[in-house]
Amino acid sequence: MPSIQLKTPSASYEIVIASGLIKTLPARLKKLRGGKPFRPFIVTSPEIWGLWGKQVLAAFGKEQPTVLFLPAGEKHKRLRTVESLLEQMAAAGADRDALLVAFGGGVVGDVTGFLAAIYMRGVPYVQVPTTLLAQVDSSLGGKTGVNLAAGKNLVGSFYHPLAVLADTDLLKTLPAAELRAGLQESIKAGIIRDAKLFRYLEANAEAVLSGDAKALTHVVAASVRVKADVVANDERESGLRMILNYGHTLGHAIEAATQYKQLLHGEAVGWGSIAATRLGLMRGLIDEATSNRITELILRYGPLSDFKAAAAKLVKLTTSDKKNRSGTLSFVLPVKIGEAVIARDVTQDEMLAAAEWMLKLMRERGAKPTAKRSKKRK
Length: 378
Ligand SMILES: NC(=O)c1ccc[n+]([C@@H]2O[C@H](COP(=O)([O-])OP(=O)(O)OC[C@H]3O[C@@H](n4cnc5c(N)ncnc54)[C@H](O)[C@@H]3O)[C@@H](O)[C@H]2O)c1
Ligand SMILES: [Zn+2]
Description:
alpha/beta
């Protein structure tokens, strides 16, 4: 079973990727605590627990964990949710022996990690990511936190889990659109650092998209390796880690322009990656054939919801992105499949041209709006 060690200056932990992991969750928690007494607190949301809770509780047998809930959805990734969970932990008698288990997608993971960072000045936690995005991205790297009205992820801390246990079986109940959107982060990983992963995604699209266990395990493991490798070299995002933002500069602008309601994050990243690829072509960093290959793979893992926004508005929004407030905008560009660079001299005109090209492609390809589905999620 794939197991990857993430080593940073402040932590070292294992990311295990396999089907059927939740059956061994209690034994793995015990091993992670190395014989020390501990009390497990599972943090999840009712929807996910409704699908998987029975199986998790069955694995625990007689020594049942305490289960705490937060409502699903990005709008609950807020300090008031954290406060409510902290109070529930205290009321349940949690002390320094508490071991938190984040059982959910990125929202549950980010909130639980933050909860673990601040409860009694820090208790350990384990990530059990249940979405593709959480398995390949949000559960690893130690970024935890919540949103403010002023912007996403503005409050939080770096706090690594004891381990990440990614059970690919959990993806069986994930809505198809969530799977496809999460896979855009895997495509990104391929573009920036792993040509083999990129080729695998090209050659095995059908198996991956249909949820084939072997294919998904392969893709999750390869994507995790890319992120673990990048984070190991730049834990606090002072340089290299920025390449993980491929497609995210315009992707975040698209999310902001549509009030975070119309597209899933990965879909916005898909469109943003198409624009970034175009910019790479415009600068002569990649050739047309490479640019087409990237664009076609992104669209193959769609359909990406479409949206209405003027290119000029998207460009304007890139400057208010939290990562660009210092004035110089960092823009990740492709050099070839498997390699990217961070450019700090991308002009507004270049972004405008790339965004316009991307919007034109969207109109030509007739992407379907899926706002209805997104509403259901909230
Ligand atoms: N910490 C980081 O480094 C990092 C990186 C990327 C993203 N993020 C954060 O991650 C969040 C997005 O995560 P996400 O895409 O997982 O969204 P999410 O947590 O909102 O989950 C998406 C939806 O899927 C449902 N769900 C989860 N697991 C399921 C399963 N197995 N079966 C059926 N339904 C399931 C959830 O209830 C929710 O409705 C954002 O808040 C983002 O800021 C954090
Ligand atoms: Zn992302």
